[in-house]
Amino acid sequence: MHGGSSGFESPRLHHMTNSVVRSIVKTASYGLLSTIATVLIVLIFTESLAIAGLIGGVDRIVKLLLYFFHERAWNATTFGREEKT
User: pTM of the predicted model, to two decimals?
Assistant: First the structure.
């Protein structure tokens, strides 16, 4: 390993960029996982599926938007990236 590489990246990934579609798919998959966790936690505390579902839905919409724009902002910066040699 060199240059901060984790050793898990394919050599071809060094020549690829993240597309908007990739960001949307990553947002959706992470969103599903985190919404399930939120609903389960709220369900444990409230014992109300209706409240857990409502909070999970609102939480998902807000966090989906935040994650998407956060992902795109990081793609637009060079912070932490290294020049390819």
Answer: 0.59
